[in-house]
Request: fold
Amino acid sequence: MRCTSALSILALCALTSAIPSRSFAQVDPQTKQLAHDIFQQLIEINTTDSVGSVTAAAEAMQQRFLDAGFPKEDMYLGGPNDRKKNLVIRIHGAGAKKPILFIGHLDVVEARREDWTTDPFKFVEKDGYYYGRGTQDMKESDAILVTTFIRLRQEGYKPDRDLILALTADEEGGKSNGVDWLIKNQRNLIDADYVVNPDGGGIDLQHGKTIAMDVDATEKLYGDYQLTALNPGGHSSLPVPDNAIYHIADALQRVQNYTFPFELNAITSAYFAKMSTLEPGQTASDMKAILSTPPDKKAIAHLSENPEYNSTMRTTCVATRLSGGHANNALPQSAQAIVNCRILPGHSLEEVRQDLIRIVNDPKVTIRYENDAAGISDTAPDRKQLPPAALKPEVMQPLEALVNKMWPNTPVIPTMATGASDGVYTNAAGMPTYGISGIALEADDVRAHGKDERLPIDSYYKGVDFYYQFVKALASE
Reply:
């Protein structure tokens, strides 16, 4: 999952228009070839839930590490079934501090050849881009992490603490989420002081100009809810008001019209405080006003007109699927919809199900929870995304210094990801997790989960350079 930035691009454009996006890509030819080959290998292994194999990708990377000289005892390959094995690699350090864990999911969302200009499971270089499913989400970062660990091993680098890399299954869906499974079954292998997850954050660009480095310091919780209405049905020539489709339509209208309460946390408050120094005019004033006590209601209403700001300030729910009826000439015996919610930290999946019951207010509509494996239950888990942990200076200071070096004068802005990632599991396990990507993307060219997914070639190699320097900055004595 890489989400779009929560920044107002137009407002910051003037700030950065004079700053060139330097082509860094300071990698030697041998490293560049290694990074290329690993990226290609991962893209061309199908890791979709339907027909792919995460195990095949994990085994391929394990062989890469073995060929690079990693002892087999410093790696673990395992999972709940033959297709969903995870790979954990460790570089031993001086032990001065607890380890740092880096996580990256190997699975990708489905992709149909007929929808794409190129074969989604072929690594295609065209017009300055690498095309293929996973080039943005997130095999590019998997390849960068594998390349980085191999480079560190080959040069004999000794960090001040252990460095752990976990390449995992089923972040995009399926029954076998790898991070969750490792925490429950092999916690000792991945226990860490904190977690860096490149499946979030990153450099925002507009027409090649750097806008900001986003750091996902917290994220929303993902939840799907199934709304169902049943009816005996009958002949369509005898319509009755008690129509299953109408009940669902009315329910969705109520969901659409409902606004969840305004709420900020430590990260979103810091985000709006920072943005208020960068945005112009009324927007900056509104951002300051929502931080006052009590927050200004008119300012909240103004900012809520922007979908990204709105989703930063509250839980959001939206209808994403709809079905009903069985024949054109018959009253519907059933109708169903899926409502997808992105839930603020501190609120549980079951709490939001109860909210939806109250909002819909129709006893003819049953609201149940749908899990990541499409299983349906009458109640939702009490699981919630914990309130965000404090930003660690030992993470933020090296990050800010490196960003200023590679993308001069670019602000580093803590954000709350409005999507969801495997950070929901590591945060819940007591390991503060930061979404930090070294990839720079144009704000209007985010194609993760979409057709013709692609990544600028220069952005990839600059990301290779970024992560190599960043890991060393985090783990130097």
